[in-house]
Amino acid sequence: MVQEAIRRSRAGGGSSSAGPSTSRGAGGSSSQGGDLASRAAAAAEARLTRARSGGTVPDVDDSAMMDVDESASDSEPIPTKRGKKAGKKTNSKKPSASGKKFATYGDLKKAAAADKDEKAAIRKEQRLERKRLGRKLTHAEKTTLLLRRYHPELRDVWGDLEARVGVAGAAPEQAEQPSRLKLALLPFQRESVAWMRKQEQGEWAGGMLADEMGMGKTIQIIALFVSELAGECAANGKGKGKGRAVEKPGPNLVVAPTVAVMQWKNEIEAHTEPPLRVLVWHGAAREADSAKLAAYDVVLTTYAVLESAFRKQVKGFTRGNKIMKERSPVHAVHWGRIVLDEAHNIKERSTNTAKAAFELKATHRWCLSGTPLQNRVGELYSLVRFLGGDPFSFYFCKRCPCKSLHWRFQDHKTCDDCGHGPMQHTCFWNNEILTPIQKHGMDGPGKPAFKKLRILLDRMMLRRTKLQRADDLGLPPRTVIVRRDYFSPEERELYLSLFSDAKREFNTFVDRGTVLNNYSNIFSLLTRMRQMACHPDLVLRSKTNANTFAPEEEEVTICRLCQDVAEDAIQARCRHIFDRACISQYLEAAAGVEDEPTCPVCHVPLTIDLAAPALEVNQAADGETGAEGVVGARSLKQGILGRLDLAKWRSSTKIEALVEELSALRQQDATTKSIVFSQFVNFLDLVAFRLQRAGFAVCRLEGTMSPQARDATIKHFMTNVDVPVFLVSLKAGGVALNLTEASRVYLLDSWWNPAVEYQAMDRIHRLGQRRPVQAIKLVVEDSIESRIVQLQEKKAAMVDATLSTDDSAMGRLTPEDLGFLFRVCVCRLEYSAAC
């Protein structure tokens, strides 16, 4: 013990770590003076020397060494040499060469005792908790006990939150109709306006409006805008004077998907009187002066533009041989309110888009989403982080009071604030909610985590469904029909040939026990089978002509995953190009299968920024109206039709089923308009060609179109009675559109995640719809499509309408799901996994 004290005192002993002592030698000695420390070392060494020489060891007053006087730091040190009499001063006038402060022997003993007592107290707490629960503690539960020792404010977080929820659960108040809003609000919409005002005056200063799609979230936010500008924030007399003070109105920033920006602008201008001053911050010539931005009532922008501006500010861009940085005007303004429309666009917290949203400055923050949970509970963290929830989005140290909103480990070894390692820090959200749910689901320790999630969502989120508010909405009924057809003999022969090859390859992976290592190959096989069920040309022409395009004819970017037009093209580090929706779907589906997803083309570990700006594409055809009434259509040379002999072209079972449905509808009621969704742009080319031959005028909406072209296309369809069919890419138009002029939806192919299909259906089943709505899903029997529909039904059953359960399985394909799609016995998969 004495030798250890001498060694530590010579090495500079004391720990510089802040907070309570955690281990031997870390006992708050940074304030000790050189004189006392050196004297302690000298005394300890003298005792050791005299003991070795057989002399008597005088008693040492440890209490004197423990008596710390910070003013002693200017005292002269008394170093000693081994074998010389203790107490003899040498170089007494020289200051300490190392400049470090030394730990005393007493301090070391005190630290060791404190450390022992602390560990005993921790063990006692764990014993009591085990006795209370009647089982062993999980790692997360042990971490919770440690956090409560150094962060007392965390002890009653959930109890306090549940108490506040109970108060909030009282009868809802209704706000008055805003005087500047021309559209009369429905009762449930006035309730939400009152709730939003109350939230803005509370500790969250915002929240999440998660009404089901089609219930008017946009108009509710506009009502909030104008009520604030009209000075009506104190309309609720009961809330006046409580909570956060009502601040002076500031500019509002709305970040929305590209397809929704012009809709926001149109609704604001149409429903406010006098109209709010609105700026669409988009395009190369967008305003660079932050002061001018702040002069508008509402600024509208897109997620891609927000990310681009933030990236240029943080990372810069290349100009010539230099890297230039450009200040982001939207990040320079302190906004009165920020609204994220379709907020699940920032669900991946590590993307640049999410980081760009986090760094915006605002007094109030709002998230709008009809499907805030799309794939995993962990995706909610980004929304909580954006809203600034304390302590739910913070990192805490388990060994000291250190707390931070950011992961602060520049050297990847020690915390920049407290000096403890990464293993001593944890995210409150992960520890309390995400980790227990991921490991245990609804069983055991996962059940309290689900309850905590429900409490948190009740505090920060308002969600109503159409069924709950049917009386207020007055919406017509919606029915979903699955139409099932069968392959023609020729199609069946082609499909079985492709299916046999795919199944043989899949069985090889199963027999080798490498299913999890070949997910990218399997996903490509599934995509080909889905395309074959739509039309054989999607596979045959893509396979035989993918590398034979002439350079002058390659006017579009091709997704290497689906071999279709990449409407929103992004590039991976391995230089392969994918459509953003395709690769996102691939990564979501692979989340439960592969630890490290690989590129579907070259099979190296996949590194891709899902929030990167889209690659440049040719948009020369955007906004043009052809002689046949096709708006925004690409030239034949650009699509699959340019590679076909149209005189000999044959349709498919699915296309003929659609023509049959539309023809019957035209005979029944020629005024009924229809929306046709497909994931594959090349398939929409074939559908458009066939419908035009059948005498239907059609419009097209694709991801390659600019916001202005999209707006023109939508207006053309909504106002032109001679255009009964709107062909929409599910990737580009499945969200944030209001197409209530139509009352029929046709889904030509199924998406892995049924939430995407629900979004598409609700483009027409929303406020303003006066006709009964029908959604028809076209499915080819005895194909992979019928299996996908069954898989959707199984996974959709796991999702609770109140968002109180984990729907992570909705977008994720497990090995058992893959076996189901390939009709392989689950027991073989289990044997493969065991290998």
UniProtKB/TrEMBL annotation:
Q: Where is the composition biased (Low complexity)?
A: 32-46
Q: Enumerate composition-biased segments (Basic residues).
A: 81-92
Instruction: Identify the stretch(es) annotated as Disordered.
Output: 1-101
Q: Which PROSITE patterns match?
A: HELICASE_ATP_BIND_1 (PS51192), HELICASE_CTER (PS51194), ZF_RING_2 (PS50089)
- Enumerate the spans annotated as Helicase ATP-binding domain: 206-390
Per its UniProt record, what Pfam families does this chain match?
A: Helicase_C, SNF2-rel_dom, zf-C3HC4
Domain (Helicase C-terminal): residue spans on this chain: 657-809
Q: Which InterPro entries match?
A: Helicase_ATP-bd, Helicase_C-like, P-loop_NTPase, SNF2-like_sf, SNF2/RAD54-like_C, SNF2_N, SNF2_RAD54_helicase_TF, Znf_C3HC4_RING-type
Q: Give the Acidic residues compositional bias ranges.
A: 59-73
Q: Which GO terms describe its biological process?
A: nucleotide-excision repair
Q: Which UniProt keywords apply?
A: ATP-binding, Helicase, Hydrolase, Metal-binding, Nucleotide-binding, Zinc, Zinc-finger
Descriptive protein name: SNF2 family N-terminal domain-containing protein
Q: Which organism is it from?
A: Schizophyllum amplum
